[in-house]
Amino acid sequence: MPSKQRVVVVGNGMVGHHFVQQLVSQQGDNKNVDITVLSGEDRLAYDRVQLSSFFNGKTEDDLALTCSKTYQDWQVCFHTHSKVVDINRDAKTVTTSKGESFEYDKLILATGSFAFVPPIPGKDRDHCLVYRTINDLHAIKKSAQDSKVGVVIGGGLLGLEAANALKQLGLQTHVIEFAPQLMGVQIDGAGGRLLKNKITELGVTVHTSVATEQIIEGENSRYKMCFKGGQTLETDMIVFSAGIRPYDNLAREFNLEIGERGGIVINNHCQTSDKNIYAIGECALWNNFIFGLVAPGYAMAKVAAGHVLKQLSSSTASNTPLSNYSNKTDEFSGADMSTKLKLMGVEVGSIGDAHARSEGAISYYFEDQPNGIYKKVVTNEQGNKLIGAVLVGDTSDYDNLLQYHLNDIELTTAPEALIMPLAGDIAELSANDLPDDAIICACHKVTKHTIEQSVSNGCIDLARVQQSTKASTGCGGCEKLVQNVINSALAKASNTINVVTLNEPVKQPA
């Protein structure tokens, strides 16, 4: 038996790296686990959420989430250019494309996802690219040097980010979307129409309800895209961003359970059908659902790290049924898919049941056409709980609405007042209105109580709270609310000090 238990992590994306962080921090000073990271890419983890900032001047180092020195300090063994090609579940080993073999006691599959490229004839031509990795960005940048027109196939979140990149590179930019609207997963039809108008005003031509049939040689540009119905569009570069697919090929090849439409099936502890193999992030299928955001992946990483350590520390772990681990804090139970972002300067927010699909759901709308603002809130049938929202053009209400939704806070005013201040008093939540266990930072699952504890420990400004708790260091969308909690905690501390001072006996002058 080895002196230390061996954990091998396949994949070093954002979620794989977060698992390593969690494993290192959760085991504390008891370094009884050997951690090996195998990255198929030529570099260690970087921030995929901020990829578009690469075209605004950020460097690869700016995007990096870790470095060799950090992993060395953590006593983590790592290998880049090390794509895993074989899993021997009986011998508990993995082998890379280099022929190197690594033994494991617990194996973590954090292989993420890959860009889906529709089976369009001509898709494999030069200058037909995807938008997924730093190396993809370099390829796009190089292609743009010899191009004047660029097309993105896909009008979802990543597609619009790719379109923004092409526009920043100086290309005449088009977006091709098969569906009748942009960002159909996150926002409703009315929000999609406004988003299309605003992006068009920024100089990007948007084509919806369009299906590409083939890509052929162009007459005036490098290629000609032929659409169903006879329309064509000439372009020099094509970027495919038509969604993602789970990178589950290892699990398929080595007989782990796979969902009907892909994804590695996991339980609430993120274990696959092999109890010694875990899957986290976009490659994992939980309750028949794949989570395409980083925050759920981080939550999976934390759960998996805790369960791995618990299993490895138990001398009877191999014979212990999972039902014995009944502590719900150690389980993954799904994740909220709300999101706030800015696309080409256009603010977009989506919360909960944005499409009002719940039984009895009631929707309230507000649209300011002159200023290009659309807002919708969705409540339950009784109208006293917020279950969804859509914001386009102005997301200043996002944090407020999200806390109503996440914490199931009962509405004390008319629902329309949430988005139409003139309809009544603004139902603005303060930090004092939120329960202690309210999630303030969804990316890192930082609660109000954790931030308040950080403040009481001397972190009295945003920068120090960020360093202490990681709050608002993911997507950054919660920064305003984090500051609100800090201000509230400081005010409470000040009041406490004043009360103590007032209650002290008054000293008489000598």
Can you offer a commentary on this structure?
Helices cover 27% and strands 24% of the residues. By secondary structure, the chain is an alpha/beta fold. The radius of gyration is 25 Å and the shape is globular.
Query: Based on DSSP secondary structure assignment, what is the total number of beta strands?
Result: 27
Kindly provide the radius of gyration, computed on alpha-carbon positions and rounded to a whole number of angstroms.
25 Å
The general outline is globular
Distance between the termini: 76 Å
Helical run tally:
12
Q: How is the largest sheet built, in terms of strand order?
A: 3-2-1-7-19
Mean pLDDT: 89
| β-sheet strand percentage | 15-25%
Structural class: alpha/beta
Query: What percent of the residues sit in helical stretches (DSSP H or I)?
Result: 25-40%
- Low-pLDDT sequence parts: 315-329, 497-510
The profile of the biggest β sheet is:
5 strands, parallel
Relevant terms:
single chain, 510 residues, alpha/beta, five-stranded parallel sheet, 12 helices, 27 strands, 27% helix, globular, disordered C terminus
TL;DR?
The chain has 12 helices and 27 strands.
List the helices and strands and how they pair.
Layout: E1 5-10, H1 14-27, E2 33-38, H2 60-63, H3 68-73, E3 76-79, E4 84-88, E5 93-96, E6 101-103, E7 106-109, E8 113-115, E9 128-130, H4 134-144, E10 149-153, H5 157-168, E11 172-177, H6 189-201, E12 205-208, E13 212-217, E14 223-227, E15 232-235, E16 237-240, E17 244-246, H7 249-253, E18 264-266, E19 277-279, E20 284-286, H8 294-313, E21 339-343, E22 346-352, E23 362-368, E24 373-379, E25 386-392, H9 398-406, E26 439-441, E27 446-447, H10 448-456, H11 462-469, H12 479-503
Parallel strand pairs: 1-2, 1-7, 2-3, 7-19, 9-16, 10-11, 10-16, 11-12, 18-20
Antiparallel strand pairs: 4-5, 5-6, 8-17, 13-14, 14-15, 21-22, 22-25, 23-24, 24-25, 26-27
Helix pairs in contact: 1-8, 10-12
